[in-house]
Amino acid sequence: MASTGFEYNKGPHDDPPSYNSIEPYAPPTTTLPTVPIPPMASLQMKGVPPGLEHFIPLNQLNGRERFSATQHRFGRNFEVLDSAGRSLFQASQDYQFCCPTYHVKITDNSQREVLTLQQQRACCISREIEVISLGGIFLGRIKLHLNAFVTHLSVISPENIVLLQVIGPGFQTNVFGNSSFEVKSPDEQHVVGMFRYENSQFILSFPLDLDVGVKALLLGGCMFLDTLLYGARARMMRQRRRN
């Protein structure tokens, strides 16, 4: 064989290394500083009333009544959850002996009272409630319009402007079964949400980008309507027992 002019002299130091002796590569260990995530209760969003930041990522709320052996005889308690079943709020409603005035406290998981629902007047014939957020901020009113054939509630701003309408079956037609009530635009031309009462719980849906104050008003309206249905059922049951 002709010489190529290049001689490769293999020596003992030219043996290939053993792969068993090569340590596997590991990236350098870097410890990142831990940044604590503040609870929702401590966050204050710009332009959002305190306590209402919980409503920002929501487009649905579910409520169910809670019962306990120590529950007050003349009160009702609710748990309010998001669409994934996570508990967000607890609501407690108290009754008065002299008159069934409406008063509900809604607290978050840190026990802050984020919403208060109360009658505008301490009067049995009142059909309006006020919705007040943390710090005494008046968010608006829910007004029931008397109608024998349909249920009609108005969601009203602090400036006395009708923001939304809630329309559904009358109390005489659908009190004991499942029922649905449409949340409509002020002119009733567009359906933007729904109140549904199914199996002793309520489901409230609304647009994700709705103002948080209006979301809170709708929660107040949904709970107020639940109380009205509860009262209508109780009256019918008493009437049946008398008959």
TrEMBL record:
The keyword Lipoprotein applies. GO terms for cellular component: plasma membrane. Residues 1-32 are annotated as: Disordered. May mediate accelerated ATP-independent bidirectional transbilayer migration of phospholipids upon binding calcium ions that results in a loss of phospholipid asymmetry in the plasma membrane. Keywords: Calcium, Lipoprotein, Membrane, Palmitate, Transmembrane, Transmembrane helix. PANTHER family: PHOSPHOLIPID SCRAMBLASE, PHOSPHOLIPID SCRAMBLASE-RELATED. Belongs to the phospholipid scramblase family. InterPro entries: Scramblase. It holds the Pfam family Scramblase. The chain crosses the membrane at residues 212-232. GO terms for molecular function: phospholipid scramblase activity. Its cofactor is Ca(2+). The keyword Membrane applies. This is Phospholipid scramblase.
